[in-house]
Amino acid sequence: MVVFPVFVSAILASFVLAEPLLSPHVVHEKRARDPLGWSRTRRIDPDVILPMRFGLTQNNMDTIEDMLMDVSHPESPNYGKHWTAAKVVNHFAPSPATISAVKDWLHSEGIHSSRQRLSPSKIWVEVNASVAEVERLLKTEYHIWADNEGGERVGCHEYSIPEHMRDHIDIIKPTVHLTGRIANPSQLRKRQIKDSNHRLGSVNSGNGPKTNGQKPSTTLTLADCDQFITPVCLQALYNIHYRPLSTKRNTFGIVEFTPQAFLQPDLDMFFKNFSPSQVGQKPILVSIDGGVAQTTNTGFDFNGESDLDLEYAMALTNPQPITLLQTGDLVEGAGFDNWLDAVDASFCTFEGGDDPTQDGIYPDPLPGGFTGPESCGIIKPPHVVSISYGQDEVTITPKSAMRQCAEYAKIGMMGTTVLYSSGDNGVAGFGNVCLTSNGTEAVPPAGTRFNPTFPSGCPFVTSVGATQISPNKTVHDPESACEQVIFSGGGFSNIFGIPSYQKKAVAGFLKNHPPPYTAAQFNNSGTSRAFPDLSANGANYVVAIDGGFFLVFGTSASAPTTGSIITLINDARLTIGKGPVGFINPAIYSDLFRFAFNDITTGGNQGCGTPGFTATTGWDPVTGVGTPNFEKLLALWLLLP
Q1: 289 is in an annotated binding site
Q2: 546 annotated among ligand-binding-site residues
Q3: Residues designated as active site
C-alpha cells in the first residue's frame, strides 16, 4: 500500500472538494447568425464596464404549462382560481443550492461577493464587471455590432460556462442577444382616403381593390362592409350585442411603443362619425419608462397604430375605460420586457429587469432621456392586453425567447389574456424576409424557408390572425383569410414545442390537410407550437389618422378587435361575481368551445415564393380556430366558474 505524506493527502482532498469549480467550460449560448442588417465592427475596450446579469435557473419550470392549464382549462376543477404575484414568485424561485453555486463560481473567478447583487426574488445575480473580466469568465470576446441605421449593440458571438454550472444558469446578459427594436407586424398597411371634406375617395396605392367614394360617416351601412369596415360591421360580423355594466372593475390595456402615439383630434373625428357619444373621451394613459403620447412628430407612421387600436377598442367596448400602456421614452424607446415590468412586479422587482441589448434601460443617461427609475409593478396587469407588435423568431435566441415566454405564462396564471398580432406577411417574416437553408434571413428566392414570428410562437400568448369580407360579399356571408394588401401571419415555431391544448387540432390539420411542403420549408414535425390561435377581420378598417381617413389592413386591427370581445365577456362575468377568463387558449381549442367560432375555410397566407398554407375545415395555420361568435362565447364562459 502506498502511503502519501499528510500534506499531499490534504492537497488531493482539496482538489476533490474543489472539483466542480474545475469542470471544463462548455458553450452555453451561441448566435446561429447575425440579425439581418447587423454586422460586427470592432472589439470593445477591455476597461469598459458591462452591467452583467446572470439569470438563475428557476424551480418548477417543468410544471409551468400544467399550472397554467390548471386554472385555464374549462374542464379543470380549478378553472378561474388565478394566482397572486407572490404565489407565482414563490413557486418558481431558484433553489438555495443554485444561488450558492452561482455566487461561489463568480467569487472563485475573482468577482468578490461584495460586488454581487442578488435580486429580491433571487432570480438574477447582477455584477458590474470590465470587458476583460467578463471575457475571461465566459471564454469569449466582446464586439460592437452596428446596423444599417447607425445603431449599435454590445455582445459576443458565443459564450461558455463551466459544465457544472449549466443546471444553475439559465441565461447571461448582455451576451449573444442582439435583437433590434421590435416592429409593428403590419407596418400599418394603408390606403389614404383623400378629400378635403374627409370623404372616402380614390386610394393613393395601386395595391388591392379601389374604394367606392362613400362618406366615412354614420351613413355607411352594413352593405358597405366589404369595402369599409366600421364598428357596426364588426358588431354584425361577430354577433356583438352587449353594453358593459362593470366598467369600474374591468380593465383593458393597449400597449404602444413610443414614438407611436395617438392624437385626440383623430379620436374625436372618428367618434363624431361612428360613436358620437364618445367625442372628447380619451384613454387612461399610464406612462411606462417615460412613455409619452407625443404630438411633435405626426403622420401615419407616428399615429396610425395607436389611433387604430384606441378608436376601435374604445368604440367596441364603450363605455369601458381603456388603459393605454405607453411604453418607452422618446430617446431610447422600449421592448417587450418594459411593459411586462410595469404590469408585473414579479418580473422586474423579483426577477432583475431588462435586457440592455434589447430593451430600454432606465434611468436613461442619454440627453433628454427619462431620468426616473424603471417602471416596475406600477399597475396591476389588465384583464386583457392587446399588442400589435412583434419580431421574427429567428432574431431572438431560444433561451431569451423561452425566458420571456415563461413570463406570459405567469401573468396568464394571474388572470390576464395576452393577445399578439400574428404578422401580415403570411409565412414570411417582416419585410417579406424568409430563411435560407442555414437559417439566415434573406428575401426570396435566396430565402425559401418559412419565417415564424415571436411572441406569436410562444405557447402562452394568444396569437391573432386576419380575415376579410371578400369583395361583393356581406357580413352575413362566411369570411375568408385576409388576402387584401396583407396576408395573415401563421405557421410553426422553430423554438417552442407544441402545447397540450392544441395537439389534437394540429395533428388533425397535418393528417387531413397535409401542406405540400417538406421539412426544408417549415417545421413539419408535428411537435412544434403552431399559430395563430384565432382570427378576426383585418381588412379595410376606416381609421381617422392625422386629420384624415385611411383604410388600414392587418393583424394590427384584428388583435384589438379580439381584445374588445374578450373584454366584454369579462365584464359579463364580473357583473355576476365571477373573475376574468385569463388565458383563453385551452378553452378555445376545447371541444366545448368548438362551435363558438366561425370556421374559415377559404384563402391562404402566401409568402417565401409559395402559396403558403390554406385555410380549411377546423384549425389551420392561417386563421386558427376561426373568428369569434360573441354570443356563443359569452354563454359558454358564463357557465364556467
Answers
A1: no
A2: no
A3: 305, 309, 556
